[in-house]
Amino acid sequence: SLLINISKLFIYGSLFLSIAYLITVILINGGIIPFKKFYALTSPTEEFFYRGELAFFYKGFIFLSIGLIFVYFIKPRYWVIMTSIIIFAIILTFTRGFIFALLLTAFTYLLLSSLPLKVRLPILFALLTAAIALVYYGNNIYSNVSRIISKTELNSCFTRQFEPDKLLGNREFSDNERKKQLNQVLERTTITSAFIGHGFGVGVPVRPVHMEVSYLEIFHKQGLLGLLFWGAIFFMLTKKFLDSKSYQSPFSKAFYFSSLFIFFQSATNQYFNNPIGMSFILLALVCLELTSKKDA
Hints:
The protein is an all-alpha fold. It has eleven helices and two strands; from the N terminus they run ααββααααααααα.
């Protein structure tokens, strides 16, 4: 009963978030909600980032992908319609990291599935090809979309007033920031810091507090020791999931692969070591423990 109620929370919460986002985007583009007022209201929270005046990204949108995974495994009533709505919302967030992490999650699921190899191989190849294409060509696609957006009358004036790191449409800026962080971390890496890091609160010039890539920040501040800590948590999740009593449960699959999605997503945006992702991973540990019990 507890697992069912928690699962419903993620399923219907993500569905509500998807519908709310789609309605908001329609109202903004229809001129019913002035974008300047929306920006002025949401920008101070530092939880929103924007793609011109046409769309936006909210940090809690990670639950769109988590909800999608839960819908797929648990298959509630009208699950096909739910899946379509959530996928449409994810696409309209224009977030490459979500799609990339979902592709890797689906790839891993198929690797572990019991489907015949002749069925899995073409799907695995398609997923891997899509993930690689997204890495190498996704930036060009988003850049072209950004150029089209920037040429529209709606975006010709106001987008120039954005702070660069809040303008989600500026993919080149975003990618260059990550490259700078990587280079500055490598420049400051010593034999000692490689093992124990530089300490909490020590950043790099371009990111004195937090970095987008979770693994990079953990390595810089805590070294390999910190990465091993999070590796141990991932090992615990995997061990509980692979328990013979829970491996076939749709609930265990939903919680495990959602956690896996967060670990993949954290390679491009910080999630598993911040309150948003950490809270779900801790919840997944508890729920996977429940599914491994005989009376679950």
